[in-house]
Design brief:
The structure holds 2 protein chains of 2 kinds.
Chain A: E1 8-21, E2 26-41, E3 46-50, H1 57-64, E4 72-77, E5 80-81, H2 87-96, E6 97-100, H3 104-107, H4 114-125, H5 130-143, H6 160-172, E7 178-182, H7 190-207, E8 210-215, H8 218-224, E9 227-232, E10 235-240, H9 242-247, H10 252-262, E11 309-310, E12 316-317, H11 327-341, H12 348-363
Parallel strand pairs in A: 3-8, 3-9, 6-7, 7-8
Antiparallel strand pairs in A: 1-2, 1-4, 4-5, 9-10, 10-12, 11-12
Helix pairs in contact in A: 4-5, 4-6, 5-6, 6-7, 11-12
Chain B: E1 4-15, E2 18-30, E3 35-39, H1 46-53, E4 62-71, E5 74-75, H2 81-87, E6 92-95, H3 99-102, H4 109-121, H5 125-138, H6 144-148, H7 157-169, E7 175-179, H8 187-204, E8 207-212, H9 215-221, E9 224-229, E10 232-238, H10 239-244, H11 249-256, E11 305-309, E12 312-315
Parallel strand pairs in B: 3-8, 3-9, 6-7, 7-8
Antiparallel strand pairs in B: 1-2, 1-4, 4-5, 9-10, 10-12, 11-12
Helix pairs in contact in B: 4-5, 4-7, 7-8
The chains are: A alpha/beta, B alpha/beta.
């Protein structure tokens, strides 16, 4: 087994959706859903993709599952080209990679018994006899904590948490190496989330599974992932170990996400960073895509696209604040901003004068 | 006197499998300008409590079978349907969970926003338009004039929920029942919505019941918190006490099972098992089969509320000495 190469490697992945207009479906533009995204998922580990809706994280998952064709870019699964047209290779990729979706209410066919649902991927592949498949169904049901004799029940007879367990059992059936988890716990009650997350952790440890986790909840991300990439408008703006991202976010967007998630202390008030919404990916803002919402925005942010910068051993972020040689200043600006802009979204005038002052110092 | 006082409220659902005791002897109060957080998992009866208060239980299966709902000096259980519809939207407003289904897709935002103003306040013409525009800017929706003519599908989820919030606040109600208003929103839009909700609340001095399964959200907005489990309130206290000194094992377990943002945990403790079926409620404490501290007594007799501190009660035998 080649263990030196990562299980999944994504290089410069792009997915643009065409927009058509008029009676002849004239091409009117492109939705840049995923724009130049690169990451790797090491064996036995979890890569987390965070971002709000519209950031393109689900599109990444869809492209990897080959539900959408990529516009450009390479993806290597186990060292072989994921987009290969060789049917045998495609089949083996499907066995290597399985998925669990957000809402088990709609990802499980309500007219099929749970055991049929779980057996389907095995029987479709043609490698399993009915008997082996049936045995395997009982095995995976037990593994996810559902009594095997409940296999002949239908999805509606289970609770939300149990249904998600069924979806996980289906993903496990073919003994995959990678499971794409698209918001696996966000439709579940808080009290059930911990159960399902622990199950995912146990399974990973037992079978050395790799996960690509897509989530918008920072707590979930911190608990489950080994490495986190933050996406905004189709691009990865920052990545690193989740603990570090939460305790010291570098990119202002990461900061916004973490602060929005953190204030669970009683009566901390409802804090906001900005009232702005995520801009449309049809005509993404020029320069840094985050500049329209960014509290630390400088003049060049709307003109020049920031490069990816290495910040410390395991961290990288794409932000103009962190130009070479002014890391300390950048941190100071960021911290000052963080203190201010949670108090009141109206205190913008206060923060902008502070920004000008600090950044002037930084530019000198 | 409190703005809302609910005493021993019980609401049942008549289903084929039997009578579901969705709300079983719930007592709570909300003072003017105060927010009560109502927490519990799905099926614990928190939405049914809200619907009972607004007298909007699903007809004909839902029945309020007992208790008192004193709102602003009137008993809503005794009120006629006519009185209720005069009150709903004016003194008592609701923010439902899903902004995708709570706005009518075939009417413009403006039309829907102006409806309560027209019906309850008798406004029309220029002042009505003006007021609608004001409301939209109150929830920070830019270009209010243009937005009024748009339809729900032209707005993002966060904006739609803000429109629903503006509608609820439009007649300056005394009490708002917010039923999981941010569950379908992103973290950042959620923070925005909560911020607006709180600022409107303090401006208008509204009382609020905020229903959610997410203790983190409840922590941010509530003054007091009531934790519901299987149709009953098991603990009630100030938000601070609930988070710092939870007294009921269920509350403690709920708090422990949240994945924290600010520290690493090796393994999250989870609440195993399922809540009891509400048409077949066991004798004794309803949490007994999942409780880590269960005693023989718990399975025999339901615990009465124990006073833990000032304004802090929990239904648990652990707090009775002997």
């Amino acid at each position: 087994m080649q263990t030196d190469i990562p299980l999944l490697e994504v290089r410069n992945l792009k997915k643009y959706f065409p927009i058509t207009a008029g009676p002849f479906r004239r091409l009117a533009g492109w939705v840049q859903a995923v724009d130049d995204v690169s990451f790797t998922v090491p064996r036995g580990q979890t890569l987390g993709l965070v971002g709000e809706s519209g950031s393109g994280k689900t599109t990444v998952a869809k492209v990897l599952l080959r539900l959408e064709e990529p516009t450009s870019g390479d993806v290597l699964l186990n060292g072989s080209d994921l987009f290969s047209r060789d049917p045998r290779l495609q089949k083996s990729h499907r066995e290597t990679m399985q998925a669990v979706f957000q809402d088990p209410g709609s990802s499980l066919n309500p007219r099929m018994a749970v055991e049929t649902i779980i057996a389907e991927p095995m029987l479709v592949g043609g490698k399993w006899s009915k008997r082996d498949a049936r045995a395997r169904v009982r095995e995976v049901l037990a593994e996810v904590g559902i009594r095997p004799q409940d296999g002949n029940k239908y999805p509606h007879e289970f609770s939300g948490g149990q249904r998600q367990r069924v979806a996980i059992a289906r993903a496990l059936a073919l003994r995959p190496k990678l499971i794409v988890l698209d918001e696996p716990v966000s439709s579940l009650d808080v009290s059930v989330r911990a159960q399902v997350m622990n199950l995912l952790k146990d399974l990973q440890e037992e079978y050395g599974l790799s996960y690509l986790l897509i989530a918008h909840d920072i707590g979930t991300m911190r608990y489950l992932s080994d490495w986190t990439a933050v996406m905004y408008l189709g691009q990865i703006v920052e990545q690193g170990p989740p603990g570090q991202l939460c305790s010291q976010p570098f990119h202002p967007y990461t900061q916004e996400l973490v602060t929005a998630a953190r204030s669970t202390a009683p009566m901390s008030g409802a804090k906001v960073t900005t009232m702005a919404e995520i801009p449309s990916p049809i005509n993404p803002p020029a320069g840094c895509r985050f500049h329209t919402r960014c509290p630390t925005r400088m003049a060049k942010c709307s003109q020049v696209t920031p490069e990816v910068r290495r910040l410390g051993v395991e961290r990288e972020a794409s932000c103009h604040l962190y130009e070479p040689g002014r890391f300390e200043v950048a941190l100071e600006v960021r911290n000052a901003m963080a203190e201010h802009y949670w108090e009141d979204s109206e205190s913008n005038s206060k923060t902008s004068s502070l920004r000008d002052e600090k950044c002037q110092v930084a530019d000198e | 006197m409190s703005l809302l006082e609910v005493e021993n409220l019980s609401s049942h659902l008549l289903t084929r499998r039997g009578t579901v005791k969705a709300v079983d002897g719930v007592s709570l109060r909300v003072e003017a300008g105060e927010t009560l957080g109502l927490v519990g998992e799905s099926g614990s009866g928190k939405s049914m409590t809200c619907l009972s208060i607004a007298r909007l239980l699903p007809w004909p299966v839902g029945r309020a079978v007992g208790g008192k709902i004193i709102f602003d000096g009137k008993d809503l259980m005794e009120a006629s349907e006519k009185e209720m519809s005069r009150m709903r939207g004016k003194e008592l407003a609701m923010i439902p969970q899903d902004p995708f289904s709570s706005l009518n897709p075939v009417f413009s935002i403006g039309n829907q926003l102006m409806e309560p103003l027209r019906i309850h306040l008798g406004m029309s013409g220029k002042p009505l338009q003006e007021r609608a525009r004001e409301l939209l800017s109150l929830v920070r929706i830019p270009e209010a004039g243009r937005r009024l003519n748009q339809y729900p599908h032209q707005l993002s989820g966060g904006m739609r929920q803000r429109v629903v919030g503006a509608m609820a606040a439009s007649c300056r109600p005394k009490l708002v029942l917010a039923d999981e208003p941010t569950t379908s929103l992103d973290v950042t839009t959620q923070a925005q919505f909560l911020y607006l909700l709180k600022s409107i609340q303090s401006e208008f001095g509204m009382g609020m019941i905020y229903v959610s399964h997410d203790l983190g959200v409840v922590a941010r907005v509530s003054d007091r918190v009531a934790v519901m489990y299987a149709g009953k309130i098991v603990e009630q206290a100030s938000a601070k006490d609930i988070f710092e000194r939870p007294a009921h094992p269920y509350t403690r377990a709920l708090l422990d099972s949240i994945a924290p943002v600010d520290r690493d945990v090796e393994r999250l403790p989870s609440i195993d098992g399922d809540p009891p079926e509400l048409y077949d409620i066991p004798v004794g404490c309803r949490f007994a089969n999942r409780c880590p501290h269960v005693m023989p007594k718990c399975r025999e007799l339901a615990p009465p509320p124990a006073k833990i501190g000032k304004d802090h009660v929990a239904d648990c035998w652990l707090h009775y000495a002997d």
